[in-house]
Amino acid sequence: DYYEAAATRVDDWVQWARDPWIVDRPVALWGGADAAEETSQKFAAISKSVQRSPERVLKKIVQDLRTKNLFEIVESKVMDWARPSEGEKRE
């Protein structure tokens, strides 16, 4: 079903590669560079929501309290806060 529903087939790309000056370039199935950027933004948003999940944060705090000393915990949290994440800039 997917192959039949696709706007572009592999044969179209092969034909275009043989005669690029005669045949119009087919449209990429996955959307090209624009879709890659959009997909990258979606993955970043998913990663951010997972990293900031309240359950995950609470489990990490409890684990840190059991295995590390208080000064090490405070130092790591301050360093995490001070370092901007990808795409963010602190002023």
Essential attributes:
mainly alpha; 66% helix
Folded structure, characterized:
This protein has 91 residues and is an all-alpha fold. The chain has 5 helices and no strands. Helices cover 66% and strands 0% of the residues. The mean pLDDT is 77.
Give the arrangement of secondary structure elements.
Elements: H1 2-5, H2 10-18, H3 32-51, H4 54-67, H5 70-82
Largest sheet: none
Strand content: under 5%
- How many strands in all? 0
Compute the gyration radius: what is it?
A: 24 Å
Which class best fits the helix and strand makeup? mainly alpha
| Share of helical residues | 55-70%
- Poorly predicted tracts of residues: none
Overall mean pLDDT stands at 77
Gap between N and C termini: 51 Å
DSSP helix count? Answer: 5
Shape: rod-shaped
Order of helices and strands: HHHHH
Outline of this structure?
It contains five helices and no strands.
